[in-house]
Amino acid sequence: MTHLSDFSYLERTFVYVYLGAYLIYSLAKYDRFESLRPSKIFSGELKSILTILLLLMTLIQATADVTVTYIKYTEGFTAPFGPAGPVMATPYVMWRYDLQMLSDGINYVQCVAFSIETSLFFLVQCFWNYLSNSIVKRGFMSSSEFRFYVVWALCSMALFPVLQWVYRNDELKREVIPQMAYSVETMITSIVGIRNNRRFRRLINSVQKKNAPAVILAKLSYFKIMNNFICLILFLYGSSFFILCVDGLTTKTIAANKFASDVVISNANICVVFYYLLFIMTFHPRRQFNTNTNNDASSFKPSSTGEDVEMNQSRFSQRVNNFIDQRQPNPEPRMNDPVYMRPMTPEELVEEEVHAYSPPPQPSSPPPLRQHPREIAIHDPYSAQPVTFSVINPHGKSSPANVPHFDQGYQ
Description:
Elements: H1 6-31, H2 38-42, H3 46-75, E1 77-78, E2 88-89, H4 97-135, H5 143-166, H6 173-209, H7 214-249, H8 253-256, H9 258-283, H10 309-327, H11 346-356, E3 375-378, E4 387-390
Antiparallel strand pairs: 1-2, 3-4
Helix pairs in contact: 1-3, 1-9, 3-4, 4-5, 4-6, 5-6, 6-7, 7-9
Transmembrane segments: 12-28, 49-71, 105-128, 148-167, 179-196, 225-244, 264-283
Keywords: Membrane, Transmembrane, Transmembrane helix
Region (Disordered): 320-340, 352-411
């Protein structure tokens, strides 16, 4: 796998180093290394297996790229057609024997990296089923399809080293054939992602009809978007390798042009960055999308009684608010407090009692009121006796003694 530009290997070396550092950061911040617990790994939890494969892929691919970078920069460039001819990277046949042996060993290491990556691509399809069971307690695919992806992933692990061994005596095919098989499997997984997008839409519509909480819909929508991006990036990534492999087996038009080959492999390298980040954001997302959060929303089950889940949450929130209001100190004095007395003028009392009075609940029945002609008795909530007002006939004779005072009977 050493026929590409020397700079492409150097670029991928730094890419995998930084991506590996970000993977460890995500494991520490969002997962707290829960996926790396031996109990989860040995129990066969899919999320832990995918995390281990991602770590192994990073380590093996970075090792292969560092080694090839060392070989390419050690051999440097040559002018095989004389000083007046073009300068090119030193071909494999002109390398030192020890570097040729090292390159042959690295080809097998690269095939192991291809095996892990393709297994990871197919197990991601199983991961959607794991997410569906974790979030909404529903299957995303049939058990036979799940087992099919697992078997395909296991077969892919053995495929690439076998291809490398079969074509070990052909300098061209031992590099091109494994890469072509890798690109074809990568594009197949991207096509499978289109089918998963339709499944996500049906699952979201089904959950919406059952009044699922908003957090459930947000999680499903998030992983649906991740699936769409993974599908797109894997197709671009696989097609880049496929173009290079077809060109290598035919006229070698792209391989003969350094700029064209560098453009294609640069596109593949940038796709590596994108799909790696997408895998991290899928396996170890932020905590609001994490499947490790055990709350009522993430363990949503459709209600058999048909009761609205959001209505239950609203009632619970109302009870919490009432509890806080009861415990919160009230800056204004309460009207029913027996020690509370507010001075009021007779005019204020008349206006308040006539226009805006609603009788408060009394612990006992009020005393009987005396009813007289042309008299109005109004209950005073701050006194044990009512306030009585007399109506004066403006056409009749009245003396100052007969004019009632407003404070009469007011205590």
